[in-house]
Write a structure and sequence with these properties.
Layout: H1 18-21, H2 41-64, H3 69-125
């Protein structure tokens, strides 16, 4: 069998051996320094989830507790605005009803006036047959 002959590489070339095909380890024997500082992906996900969950839980507790001064003022303003809107809507509704009532009253008066004119016309045109 043939034995592997070592060839002296030039200064620019790096010799290819088994150790060169894999990444070189640092002086402490670890592949990457600082890798121990990085959290595991599962731990990182859990920590992000716990932070978000904590924030949402805190916000929910604040909503359940007594309202702050700003929230109370906002609710008062909303109540005043809704009251004003309701008054305006009721006013417009009453005005429309009054307008409809006036139109129906005028229409009835016109019908009565027409019937009265017809009766007067009949009385004047036809002689009285009583006799």
């Amino acid at each position: 069998m043939m034995e592997a002959q070592e060839v002296q590489p030039s200064k620019d070339e790096v010799p290819v051996t088994q150790s060169n095909s894999q990444p070189a380890a640092g002086p402490s024997g670890k592949k990457r320094p600082g890798q121990e500082k990085r959290p595991e992906p599962a731990k990182k996900s859990r920590s992000l989830f716990s932070q978000i969950y904590g924030t949402l839980k805190k916000a929910n507790e604040e909503n359940d507790s007594e309202p702050t001064e700003a929230v109370r003022k906002r609710r008062e303003i909303d109540a005043r605005i809704y009251g004003k809107i309701n008054r305006d809507v009721n006013l417009v509704r009453r005005q429309e009803e009054a307008k409809r009532d006036r139109h129906s009253a005028l229409r009835k008066e016109e019908e009565l006036a027409i019937k009265d004119d017809v009766m007067k016309f009949r009385q004047n045109c036809f002689p009285r047959l009583a006799g």
